[in-house]
Design goal:
- The protein contains five helices and four strands, in the order H-E-E-H-H-H-E-E-H.
- By secondary structure, it is α+β, with helices and mostly antiparallel strands.
- It has one domain.
- It has a two-stranded antiparallel sheet with strand order 1-2.
- Strand 3 and strand 4 form a beta hairpin.
- Helix 1 crosses helix 4 and helix 3 crosses helix 4.
- The chain is elongated, with a radius of gyration of 20 Å.
- It starts with 13 loop residues before the first helix and ends with a helix.
């Protein structure tokens, strides 16, 4: 079987499935606990009486800010629900729909499976630390890609 991010993680072997669920749990907690908070404070250089400026006192996680920069209509609650489904192994398969049709709810599941896949397969940089790729994930997905190329030859 050739797995893609359009398929639920229940189709993956237990070790890889567990890696996906652990990463989804981390991302869920990170997004739940870190939210952008902006307050108004008096401007340092008052241009008029009562001049206020916005100041961010807390920020979204960097991985979410990066994702939001690519998908500006990304919804936080839908993101949390998708991560919750993945961590609880309730994620759903994405069904291809015609371009004129409304997209399914499960596209968030696929988006976050892709984020998690990238983090596991390529590693990532977070909070000043480089986190290496997961060896088990790289080994599994490389072997799966080789099987697919055998069929294409």
């Amino acid at each position: 079987m050739n797995w893609s991010v359009n398929f639920p993680i229940e189709l993956l072997p237990l070790k890889i499935n567990t890696l996906f669920r652990k990463e989804a749990d981390f991302l869920y907690k990170d997004l739940s606990n870190n939210r952008c908070v902006v307050v108004l404070v008096p401007a340092q250089h008052q241009k008029y009486p009562g001049h206020m400026v916005r100041l961010a006192v807390a920020e979204n996680p960097m991985w979410y800010r990066d994702l939001y920069s690519h998908y500006p209509n990304l919804k936080r609650q839908r993101s949390l629900r998708a991560l919750d489904r993945i961590r609880n192994q309730n994620d759903q398969q994405v069904v291809e729909v015609p371009k004129s049709a409304v997209h399914t709810w499960w596209t968030y599941d696929a988006l976050f499976r892709e984020v998690i896949f990238d983090r596991l397969f390529y590693g990532y940089h977070e909070n000043g630390y480089d986190l290496p790729p997961q060896k088990e994930a790289r080994k599994f997905f490389r072997a799966e890609k080789k099987e697919l190329s055998d069929y294409l030859d």
